[in-house]
Amino acid sequence: MTIKHTPTPWHLRDGATNGEVHVCAPGRTIAVCDARPPNECEANAEFIVKAVNSYDDMLEALEALVKYVDALNDVSDEGGLTLCDEYDNAVAAIAKAKGEA
Fold first, then answer.
1. Is residue 2 assigned to a domain?
2. In a domain, 4, yes or no
3. Is residue 5 part of a domain?
């Protein structure tokens, strides 16, 4: 059974007087960041929101790029391209993002 995460986009909401920063989706709080010092709290919350909101687009772009390189490799007249470490890193990052690594 696959459990789906709360739909994006997520955003930040200031916790008012207590210094917390809330990571929110429409109609709900997802997480509360209250690390000290306060600027670290806000930076952590911003990082979470940026990562979550860009995840689908980055994964799709990286998968398309790997698919494109694979297709080039399949039609190469020289028996295949020499793939670099960056290609292997991209494939590993896709697996990690999908929870397969």
1. no
2. no
3. no
User: Kind of pairing, strands 28-33 and 11-14?
Assistant: unpaired
The structure tokens listed for 56 are 């689908």
Phi, psi of 5 (to 5 degrees): -80, 170
| Cis bond before residue 9 (omega within 30° of 0) | yes
pTM (two decimals): 0.75
Per-residue pLDDT tens for 11-23?
Answer: 998 766 677 889 9
**55 within 8 A of 97, measured Cβ to Cβ:** yes
- Sort 67 into a burial class: Cβ within 10 Å, 0-12 / 13-18 / 19+: exposed
